[in-house]
Amino acid sequence: MFPWQFLTSPAGKWLGFVTAIWVQAISGNNYTFSNYSHALKSLMALTQLQLNNLSVAKDVGKAFGLLSGLASDRWPTSIILIFGAVEGLIGYGVQWLVVSQRISPLPYWQMCIFMCMGGNSTTWMNTAVLVTCMRNFANNRGPVSGILKGYVGLSTAIFTDLCTALFSSNPSKFLLMLAVVPAIVCLTAVLFLKETEPASTPSEQKQEAEFFRAFDVIAIAVAVYLLAFDITGTHGHVLSLAFVIGLAVLLAMPLGVPLYTFLYKPSGTEPSCHNDDIEHQIKEPLLAKIGAPIEKPPEIQNSNEGINLRNVVGKRQPLIGEDHTIIEMVQTFDFWILFFSFLCGVGTGMCVMNNMAQMGLALGYHDVSIFVSLTSIWGFFGRIVSGLASEYYIGKCGTPRPLWNAAAEVQMALGFIAMASALPGSFYIGSILVGMGYGVLLTITVPVASELFGLKYYGLLYNILILNLPLGSFLFSGLLAGLLYDAQATSTSGGGTTCVGPHCYMLVFVIMAIACMLGLALDVLLAFRTKNVYAKIYESKKHTTTT
Hints:
By secondary structure, the protein is mostly helical. Helix content is 72%, strand content 1%.
């Protein structure tokens, strides 16, 4: 009886969130391309442009995330997770067969297909987790997004450090991990992650906030642990095994929250009725969840601010903050501001992550795994801090959440300038700044999209925004970095290209810094246009805390 009692108690909801954390902790495999890209380049005798286009093919897989977004409104979470697990197993499994030389290198176009499959697999995992958890914890979207996206940021460091500790950074064994581990974790989450009723009373909301603080502390401990392993240099066999065991313990620690909830049954956590029938029934818009909407006077509703337009047949366009269909959303000016500001930040960030190996080699670093880990770990701190801080300042003074994206764009621009300078240690500083800024953008954009356009079609909305990852990868990595690198590079005897020196990427870094400044202007504009929405959320939160 114990397992059934546990799953049907409120602890089951928290156990589902723990498995969601585990899924996110292994779903950042798209950011690990630099760990095995050099092996692909040498094995297939590729130019830098060809290698970058392989990374673009990986990111193009995210464009097909629209399918997972559509599926999230029709299929249960379990089916979406299974699809992602199987697709990832095939996509990364074939890449492992090639790099381990168990099969001959496939034709270039076939490798692009399997790279695309590997990239697309994570969209199914992310959609299943984010849509479900944003609905289950609708009153704490900032912390939820920060924690989940934080573990995505850590996943690159988790995979990299595990491979370093167990397999001495062997690229073929690294790819085997990318194929097998996510499949196992997703199949585990299938058993526990499902949609449930969100907290409906002040006591439940207060308890949620307390538990999320506990999750934050654990996540920070994981990040510090990984950082300590990275900065302490090489390790012997015994220390490496001890590191792996310690990491497993830290990743298991979130289980303490559902166990505590089940054993002590805190007040205000009686189970909701008919939890098994709750999938896809949570359709209320954001502002209906956190408080009654505040009616705007007619002169504001009919203004030209894009808040309440009417279409040609006289039907009222939904207010920003209410549920939008996809057609209604793309007709708003605010959506396109969010879309292009997001493109400026994540596109340039993807360029660095996809080209980290070549950037490091050009600057004289033969082992770039430390930079991959630094970007990942500091990206985590950007995600976790921005999720908590943005939620706090909304509740304190109604600060528009897009302002945090604006700050991230500034941070990334400074990082690119540091990289372009090629001074001693500047690549370390640049990796940290770019990683933090990229993490903030991915975390903040998730709740911003739901706050402006609602949760009803959130799965599809999220994946439309994620189109910026393949688009940005193509523009900044496939075209900008690839073409400018090859223009500076010399041919090798094997048919590839190589470039050594700060000039290889200097112009790329300068252009990306300018792009981030454009993103800054767009984020400030969006914050100004949506200040009334966040004032409404502030009043709703203030009303909730005083009742």
